[in-house]
Design a protein that fits this description.
flat, 19 helices
């Protein structure tokens, strides 16, 4: 790729130029993020400015440059572009600032200045956690859950961090309560969190608790993952039979076909007959025959497939491509 080659040439040049010429290159790079450079090169220029001018004499100039980029981003009309730009450059500013151990208060003051930005608050949360200032971290996490309530991904992240803090603090009740919120709301149906919650109960207790989860999970949650985890294959079968199409059936066919071959074959028969009802091309007829072969591998499937084939040969006898593919079965 041309951009990669240009980037490599810039890096090679920086390693060979004199200190004076390197200063000139720094000026050139920092003045060419104004839209005058092809956009796909801007990311490389940003990377070079941040990573390849490591000498201490560039530190102040880099901070000044990043401040200018933050101000530029903060002036954008689009909420998304403004949030993304400020967040990206703010993190680079904080990372550079934090290299000086004496700049801790400056980092805190900077975070307060751009507090509305979620990336800045996330940095501050991690800062508090590194210092084991868990009470302050929890306070900011709770505030962030409210501020970013429209962004499910961020709310899930904040909630998981709360869970981890409670675990670190040994606050078992708060930890378990937070796990419940995650499993039922913020990351409903997440299998890893479900397993983590399961570990907090005895086998007898869990039978009751899991039923509470099944009752309260929202409809969009993948409850089938949990049925599989618990080996509740009768419920998994019911879920499969109610699902549309064949995707879910094929996902769990290997688990269910030993105990429930008849039910799976009925589901297959219903779906392939729906598919066959529409005139199509040879590619789709090949797919149908492939599904019939798959059915043959299930106990009792050969007889069902034989019946389907005979029915199709009568009903769709004028579809030459279909008849040709059926002859290969």
């Amino acid at each position: 790729m041309l951009a990669d080659r240009i980037y490599q040439l810039w890096i090679e040049l920086l390693s060979k130029v004199t200190a004076q010429d390197k200063e000139k290159m720094f000026v050139w790079f920092t003045t060419h993020l104004d839209g005058s450079t092809i956009d796909y090169l801007e990311e490389y220029i940003e990377q070079i400015i941040i990573e390849d001018f490591k000498e201490s004499k560039y530190r102040r100039d880099k901070l000044t440059f990043i401040e200018q980029m933050i101000e530029k981003s903060d002036g954008k009309d689009s909420d998304w572009s403004r949030s993304y730009g400020v967040g990206k450059w703010a993190l680079r500013y904080l990372e550079l600032l934090s290299e000086d151990v004496k700049s801790e208060q400056k980092c805190i003051d900077f975070c307060k200045k751009y507090w509305k930005n979620s990336s800045v608050r996330r940095y501050y949360i991690d800062f508090c956690m590194r210092k084991k200032d868990y009470e302050n971290a929890i306070r900011v996490l709770d505030e962030s859950i409210l501020l970013d309530r429209d962004y499910r991904g961020l709310v899930s992240e904040y909630s998981e961090k709360k869970k981890e803090i409670y675990l670190q603090q040994g606050k078992k009740e708060d930890y378990i309560n937070q796990l419940w919120k995650l499993v039922l709301e913020y990351e409903a149906g997440n299998l890893d969190l479900y397993k983590e919650l399961k570990k907090q109960y005895t086998a007898e207790e869990w039978i009751v608790q899991r039923e509470a989860i099944f009752r309260q999970l929202p409809k969009y949650a993948h409850i089938e993952y949990l049925y599989k985890e618990e080996k509740l294959y009768d419920r998994l079968l019911e879920f499969v039979l109610k699902s549309n199409g064949l995707y879910v059936l094929q996902e769990y066919e290997s688990i269910l076909k030993k105990d429930y071959p008849e039910q799976l074959l009925i589901k297959y028969e219903t779906e392939v007959n729906k598919m066959a009802a529409y005139t199509s091309d040879r590619k789709n007829y090949k797919q149908l025959v492939s599904l019939l072969r798959r059915m043959q591998k299930i106990k009792g499937g050969s007889k069902i497939v034989e019946g389907i084939s005979e029915q199709w040969r009568m009903k769709y006898r004028n579809r030459r491509a279909m008849m040709d593919e059926l002859s290969k079965l």
